Amino acid sequence: MWRDLAPVGRSASSGGYFRQPWASAETELRSWFVEQCAARGLTVETDGIGNQVAWWSPETASGPSVLTGSHLDSVLDGGAYDGPLGVVSALAAVDTLRERGFSPARPIGIGVFVEEEGSRFGRACLGSRLATGTTTWEDASELRDRDGVFLADAISASGLDPSRGLVDLDRVGTFVELHVEQGRDLVDRDVAVGLASEIWPHGRWRFDFAGQANHAGTTRMEDRHDPMLTYAMTALAANKQARLAGQRATFGRITVEPNGTNAVPSLVTAWLDARASSDDALASLVAEVERQADDRAGRDGTSLVVTPESVSGSVAFDPDLAARLAGLGDWPVIPTQAGHDAGILSDAGIPTAMIFVRNPTGVSHSPDERAETADCLAGVEALADVLAELAGVPA
């Protein structure tokens, strides 16, 4: 399966992946998923926006289902494992359980949620947010990508129809997501597999710095109203405040107008990704960055508007479920600073757990993202054990 996925959406120059939702590479992967499920006799449901769930549900299975899976889209120039590892491992776990002679007493589903990364329309975990009702279609349909394409138009262009409705999560009793670790906790512990205890609160804020366009040569430095200077100081302030507080703050995307080499810009738009150990700490971090940006804008003769675009509160996964599953393999229970569909389903009231597979470098959202085959296979065995534990008990 990994060989099948390897070339899809991969950049020949960087080796990274561009698997944007409702575009060709991601559409190819969703078709691949349907083929893999058909080969296993699994029934696939695809909703109106592209979320998919494949069901292993023998006639003897009943009651609330156990759902696993992840996502197939990527960040821009992303790694191979973030998302697809959870989908491939879920399919492999079903193979493993069948090889063991296991028959589920509860239905087992394998889910693929669209636009988990938020790399095209700026709303992380959009597919699971819509499925759980956290985000409404009226709100989401007005989102635009970098080229100005509306979400509704992108979905329609890919052959989907939102009026068909969304995947029904009411039948899901438990969700378990396997994911490559996006950090070094398991490396430092020298273990291949771990479970998640919580997800740090995190979000994205758009900073619009407005100034006055002018000639780069004839405009004296003291006469400028340069939003690039305001942005530059803000980026440095965010870095300093995050370091002082032991939190995370990143400006990873900017746009500039008019974007000319010989012109003072009129507008700089930058997106802040901020994460913290608590909701209060996150609010405090963003507020301090905004305060310092406002102060600098006053000195530069520029203006600032800050707009929250996607904010997720802290998620504490079901501690009883984590403790129950940790006992299956003596796996450590660790926090994560990365957002996941698991966090959205947990907030929706579905008991949720996450399995992490060791990443030897800790690098993620990059072509250098890795996981060793032996660790991936250990993850498959762990997921199979967890599914057997959760789906082996009759309703």
Automatic annotation (TrEMBL):
Positions binding Zn(2+) 2 in this chain are 82, 117, 365
Q: Which UniProt keywords apply?
A: Hydrolase, Metal-binding, Zinc
Judging by the UniProt lineage, the source's domain of life is Bacteria
| UniProt keyword Lipid metabolism, yes or no | no
Q: Which InterPro entries match?
A: Amidase_Cbmase (IPR010158), Bact_exopeptidase_dim_dom (IPR036264), Peptidase_M20 (IPR002933)
Query: What does the record say about how the cofactor binds?
Result: Binds 2 Zn(2+) ions per subunit.
Which SUPFAM superfamilies does the entry mention? Bacterial exopeptidase dimerisation domain, Zn-dependent exopeptidases
Q: Which family does it belong to?
A: Belongs to the peptidase M20 family.
Which protein are we looking at?
Allantoate amidohydrolase
